[in-house]
Amino acid sequence: MKKQMRYVMQIVTLLFAILLLPFSVFAEKSLIPMGHSIGVELQLQSVYITNDVLLKNGAWLKAGDTIQTMNSQEIHTLQEVRSLYTSASGKMIDVKIKRQQKTQHIKLKKEELEPVLSFFRDQTDGIGTLTFIDPETKEYGALGHQIIDSVVAAPPKFKSGSIFYASIEQIKKSVPGEPGYKISSIEHNAGQLGSIAENNVYGIFGKWSNALEQGFPKPMEIMQPSEIKVGKAQLLTTIEGKKVEAFDVKITKIDDKSLQFEVTDAQLKKKTGGILQGMSGSPIIQNGRFAGAVTHMFIESPEKGAAIPLTEMLKKQPS
């Protein structure tokens, strides 16, 4: 009986150790806090229709429709659509579309298809903030929340993705009831910074392609949620050009999976009105340690925002 009890206790102890493993790993790991503005581009698996379009023959193309074939040729990219359109010699082009789970055929004259090509797309893009780079594995995380495609109102199915530096050219300030945003240009000429492997609930993740620049901050120890305190902290983000700056915030509420904060920095409030669209992913630092990442703003009170502890973001999915 004692031998059986000893065996059970060994199993329980092992399971307890396994459950604690992710937290001990996070506690020992140090990550580079970033705050750089990035352009995010996802190459979609299909060609989508972006708007409802009434065709001359009375048929409709609906936002979210996907192009399956044109003249029986499979379509996966916008370039394939344009090439087939250019080379089509017949009077009619047979377009097979998928709408919700059903397919249908629409026949169009070549001149009827031309004006609607501008409503076809095979990629989605946007602006966000780079959260961290792991100096050992060169993995990165950004955004702090999942990318949802506005056309299909769901996480887009993508075959590849890239991140690039983005330069902030102008700011549209946030006001109560109307979120502001960054007006940015994506610096494709500077080259791809990294690939996108995952688009999860807590952000995008992938491999950093470039060398780690000398100007990057030093790696910081990750804070456990229990160590984050109500009080002063700093937000790292970009509001002009590519310059990352630290701005004062106050953490006002904490639990294991989220925290709330308020912008107290007079310069940031004057320039932006508080939190902007595009700031999601901005690192939050407290007492020289890496606490979390911005995820949302409160629309009616744009100086207030929400974030997740970095330990939670590293899980990639809620537990």
TrEMBL record:
SUPFAM superfamilies: PDZ domain-like
Gene3D superfamilies linked: 2.30.42.10
PROSITE patterns: SPOIVB
Pfam families: Peptidase_S55
InterPro entries for this protein: PDZ_sf, Peptidase_S55
The Peptidase S55 domain, residue ranges: 97-319
Designated name of the protein: Peptidase
Gene source species: Viridibacillus soli
